[in-house]
Amino acid sequence: MSVRAWIVRRKIKSLFRTDLSGKPKAEVVGFKQALLISEKNIPQPPKTTEIEAVDEIHGEQRVRGEWVSEPGFDPDRIIFYCHGGGYIWGAPKFYRELAWRLSKACNARVFLLDYTLAPTAKCPTQINEGLAAYDMVSKNNPNARIALSGDSAGGNLAVSLAVAIRDSGGPAPAALVLISPWLDLTGSGDSLKYNGKKDVMLQPDAVVKGAQLYHGELAAVDPRCSPLFADHKGLPPILTQVGSEEILLDDSKRLATSIDKAGGAITLKVWPKMHHAWHMSAAIVPEARKAIKEIADYLENYWTAR
Fold first, then answer.
1. Which of 226, 246, 279, 287 is catalytic?
2. What does 52-108 look like in DSSP terms, one character per residue?
3. Which of these is catalytic: 252, 276, 279, 281?
4. Considering 152, 180, 252, 281, which one is annotated as catalytic?
5. Is 276 a catalytic residue?
6. What is the pLDDT of residues 46-75, one digit of tens each?
7. Is residue 152 annotated as part of the catalytic site, yes or no?
8. What is the pTM of this model?
9. Into which CATH architecture does domain 3-299 fall?
10. Is 188 in the active site?
């Protein structure tokens, strides 16, 4: 672990896991409050970055989001990105810098989906919004290859979208890229216990209680809410990146096992001591930049494959 990663981890822990007295933070409220406080520290991309807002009706569904790209991108490469934030926080403006880095590394355009947050909307609203947006992007770019990606709750949504696209017979993504995905809203993974005091950002109890804001009247085990429990046959190739001390580590491990049993292709990369969605720290942390390069190298295998 680099010195910069160590420093960032300490800062994250001080914000998300303890208050000034050293006591554990209040769970769900504290998590969202910490995210709101962190907004001011999220960098923006270079002024040369191309950003285009989207707000239109596709079919009967409103589609909102942003296109973010490094000038000179390949128009036939698209990353459809679902942001994280536990379904209770997040917006494209906070992900522009990461999207720019992905665009530059992958020579692709990035579409940042702006889905309705919980508890204003609950599952499956976000899936329906994502499906409409994906359909719009694919129909407007018939020659493009689309990689579906997301971090944390966005990783949850990305897998749910891939399953729904497969079931509907729509054009499949070329590949999936998942960053620290939150795939099991029941909180049944063993890593919630063995990494419970190691994770510098997420608290086990907060994950389970926060899940209730998203799944609402649906059971947490419903595959639409927890895509870990979906049928994984016939999904596109997947790259999953996760930190070794994350409480969500077992979500990624169990997904890899399920994909293998279903006859699919998945590459699981466990990064030593990296914090949750460390890619957002790429302006400071070298491991984040290396992880983004790993994504670019992985996707290079699927941009031209048919």
1. 246
2. EEEEEEETTEEEEEEEEE-TT--TTEEEEEE--STTTS--GGGSHHHHHHHHHHHT-
3. 276
4. 152
5. yes
6. 999 999 999 999 999 999 999 999 999 999
7. yes
8. 0.96
9. 3-Layer(aba) Sandwich (3.40)
10. no
